[in-house]
């Protein structure tokens, strides 16, 4: 049969004491350390996942902003082109109006000059007619009344001719 010696019993007692000491002073702190480490890793993994989600949201938002900025840039360019075209039309309309005003003023000035030329011509014809009548009648017709009557006759005749031409 088996015989147990004292050394064997002391070894068993030593082993049991060593087990309880190791369990008390090494295993519990080691287990606590491992639990804390596991919890820290779990927390850091959760934080990393959260940070990744935030980063993905930010990336998506920036991509949307970039897409919107392209659209906004196109809108700004179209708006600027539209305003430039409108301004161009306004400038052309203003230039056409100025040209029409200049043409109207020129026509008015021409009509005024024609009227003055007719008056001058009527006066000159009246002077010549008065001189011719003086020469024909043999008497001097220097009076203002005769000259005015001749001028009036020539003006009426010119107006009749103008009305007839129109």
In words, what does this structure look like?
This protein is mainly α. The chain is built from 2 helices and no strands.
User: How many β strands by DSSP?
Assistant: 0
- Tell me the overall shape: rod-shaped
The secondary structure category is mainly alpha
Q: First CA to last CA: what distance?
A: 160 Å
Largest sheet: none
Average per-residue pLDDT, rounded, comes to: 83
- Beta fraction: under 5%
Helix percentage: over 70%
| Topology order in helix (H) and strand (E) letters | HH
User: Low-confidence segments, ≥5 residues, pLDDT <50?
Assistant: none
Helix count?
2
Based on CA atoms alone, the radius of gyration comes out at 61 Å
Write the layout of secondary structure elements.
Elements: H1 6-137, H2 144-165
Helix pairs in contact: 1-2
How do you describe this structure in short?
With 166 residues, the chain is mostly helical.
What tags apply to this protein structure?
mainly alpha; 2 helices; single chain; 93% helix; 166 residues
